[in-house]
From TrEMBL:
Record domain FAD dependent oxidoreductase: where: 4-349
A Pfam short name: DAO
InterPro entries in the cross-refs: FAD-dep_OxRdtase, FAD/NAD-bd_sf
Keywords of this entry: Oxidoreductase
Protein name: Glycine/D-amino acid oxidase (Deaminating)
Organism: Actinokineospora diospyrosa
Amino acid sequence: MGVDVVVVGAGVVGAACADALSAAGLRVTVLDRGPLAAGTSAAGEGNILVSDKEPGPELALALSSLALWPSLVEDFDIEWDSKGGLVVATGDPTPLERFAAAQREVGVDARWITPVEALEMEPHLTRRVTAAVHYPQDAQVQPVLAAQALLAKVRRRGGVLRPGVAVVGLDARGVHTTEGVIACEHVVNACGPWSGEVSRVLGAPIAIAPRRGMVLVTAPLPPTVHHKVYDADYVGAVASGDADLQTSTVVESTAAGTILIGSSRERVGFDESIRVRVLRELARKAVALFPALADAPVMRAYGGFRPYAPDHLPVIGADPRVPGLWHATGHEGAGIGLAAATGALLAELLTGATPQLDPKPFRVDRPGVLLCA
């Protein structure tokens, strides 16, 4: 028996697409070659941010997603934490001030505060802070719980979830998998860092590559960090396309009392090795921002792969080369935060509804994204 849509990839972006499509009345099957929500989503910090995005299409997508997330998962406990963000400068504050001013012009709640006010919000911050911006809209979720909540809604509507099933081809009969052919009208490639590989299997390659990131996790501590706090240089690292290692200071707590310390970005393919030099750099920068962490015991470290697009914008929409093929990928480290609006936009485009956001910046056939088969 056929379905309307096969969504390939059961991370948070694939789950959000499946949720929006099934809510629109379509019959949906979700495939993943591994367990559900066990890839990039399981390795993320769960950030839902507007603070790190300059005015433009990605910020518009982030603001839309921020508005959608609470209603999408209101019946589930996904450990939603409206902690807010704090971006601090320890040098010349002018670039941060200009960045925040531009964000305010497009609707971001970016509150310029003094070093004294920053220390009142985060008493353990370094005294070298010269200025800061408070972003009350920033939030955090537990990403695996969020993805599972969305997939549970798909299942309630009659959708089918099939973990452990890989896609091996696509033709007029439907999607070819390791467990047979699934007849369908549409296929959504939502495979995160593996979207480039899967796009080739589907006959329409796109330029999505993995970008590795690592995180340190401390043992549970007394209340030490109260917001998502990062140095102003984090914004530059997010927007950079440099293949070499980049680190920037990001520190935040979890509900369990542990402290997450990031972040790193490095294009090393799918190399999963733990790089001690990266962890040392993360620790050094975290202690510079929060000196009280100098003696904090580290409980573990983990890494994951982000789906990197050459122009740092998600790829959302129909592939012009293969009828019925759609892509929802390329969110890099912002997939959790952008997932809700990505699913909504993809469903609007696929069903012919009027999109609430301009889809052109995310189109598949933009320069640098399409590759030759």
